[in-house]
Amino acid sequence: MAGRPTVADRLAAALGAVLGTTELPLRLRGWDGSLAGPPGAPVVAVRSRKALRRLLWSPGQLGLGRGYVAGEIDVEGDVFATFAALSSAGRLAETGPMAAPTVRERLDLLGTALRLGAIGPEPAPPAEEADLGRVGRRHSRARDAAAISHHYDVGNDFYELVLGPSMVYSCAVWESASGDLVADLEAAQEAKLDLVCRKLGLQPGMRLLDVGCGWGSMAIHAAQRYGVDVVGITLSEEQARLARKRAAEAGLTDRIDIRVQDYRTVDDGPFDAISSIGMSEHVGREQLPTYVRTLAALLAPGARLLNHAIAWNAGTTTWSRDSFIARYVFPDGELLGLTETVGALEAGGLEVLDVEALRRHYALTLRAWVQRLETHWDAAVAATTEGRARVWRLYMAASALAFEKGDMGINQVLVQKPGGAEPPLRRTDWV
Prior knowledge:
Elements lengths: L6 H13 L7 E3 L5 E2 L6 E4 L2 H9 L3 H9 L3 E4 L2 H9 L15 H13 L25 H12 L3 H8 L17 H19 L7 E5 L5 H10 L2 E6 L2 H13 L6 E5 L10 E7 L10 H11 E14 L11 H6 L6 E2 H10 L3 E7 L1 H17 L1 H7 L2 H20 L2 E9 L15
Parallel strand pairs: 1-3, 5-6, 5-8, 6-7, 8-9, 9-10
Antiparallel strand pairs: 1-2, 3-4, 9-12, 11-12
Helix pairs in contact: 1-5, 2-3, 2-5, 4-16, 7-15, 8-9, 14-16, 15-16
């Protein structure tokens, strides 16, 4: 005769109702120690009834994410294996925003919560969740500054633990997919920076605008290796402070000007080249024509712009505003398809010289960052909060899997403003 369902059995049924499946590829550990699910599968521990209550109020990706950030849901073992298994289950395996449970599934979830004593008011979201609703209109200058601050002003020490000494927070370019990713990370990031400089055709005496300059790594590389003068702009006060310090330590204060400035207010062109590395994801679809028009106007005739950005691949859509990544990682961020980006650049009067896809490279980069975070976990938590470290672990591991699956890509699009010198006949100038 079958025994009475355990806490884990009931939690498995609840998660199945949320995901729309009865076949979970995971084992669940209840707060009482009970286990349910296929032997040998990755284990997810539910440590508190509050996690179930969160799912009752937000039955989807957001509720799961809140429970994980709060430490009420945890991963036992390899995060990549666990998140891969979870993302293959039910609605999470589908393309696009996660569909809501049916009425029947919601009733089943309510019944489980009643049986496990999880009924109650909606728990407050973890402190790491962004709330920009009162800041102003979406993609206004004030709200963009607040969105950037939410993501980047979380402590330079934290970022150095994750990113390594290069302090480059964008896709590296790797020689090989094998080997020690952490040991090879610095060389791969330097290779990316150098590739950008070569594509832009930088020469001594040129003037470069680095849009979204981060902690100054591109500016320092371009000034040191190519003898250019650089204006770097960011909306993050913490990034600017460290970028200026790094430029001074490199003896480049006369060559590098780091500003806290919105790209829409730059008025001291023309520039001989513009790099935009991992910045246009914050611009948004509505503002994309303004972004292109503004940067095109800042280019000298014949000057080049390199736009390095994550993209949704064919058949996928951007995340919803109630997704985990929109609430915790990139508030107001929007990913566009490659065709949209190229179309906007061409509509702005810029000629496309080259498009290079780096999807597999970003998966390797993210895996290296997750390894660094895991290795330095205690120090990372001390540098920020445990919730923030959990946000970064979840989003980076899940993003690595999305790049590996092909749901997301990343592309460098090189364009040139008409006039001036003709571009090279072949790509051999920069490959």
